[in-house]
Amino acid sequence: MPELIHIVLVKLKPAVRSDESAFSTFVTKCNELGTYPSLQPLLTEFKWAEPVYADRTKGFNWALYSRFRHREDYEKYRDDEGHRTFVKEVMSPALDEIMAYDLEV
């Protein structure tokens, strides 16, 4: 059964990115997502990061790379109430645009 890689690219609102305190709080909350007890067993890798080469990102300035043992684990993660709350309360208010890309390897 192939593993699943889940990539999320985000264009943060300028107010979030330019305010050091707001961005720091946002980063902390993003990293906490990977420590949720309901999600941790599903993840084999979980990393948020800024781009290395910002001139090639078409404005996307924050990204998630996550890896799952198989599609079923990803679907549990996607449908998890903690994840859904994070998207609604942390991600959505902070972003201008989002793109997700999932692939099996």
UniProtKB/TrEMBL annotation:
Residues 4-103 form the Stress-response A/B barrel domain. SMART domains: Dabb. InterPro entries: Dabb (IPR013097), Dimeric_a/b-barrel (IPR011008), HS1/DABB1-like (IPR044662). SUPFAM superfamilies: Dimeric alpha+beta barrel (SSF54909). It comes from the Eukaryota. PROSITE patterns: S_R_A_B_BARREL. Homodimer. This is Stress-response A/B barrel domain-containing protein. It comes from Ceraceosorus guamensis.
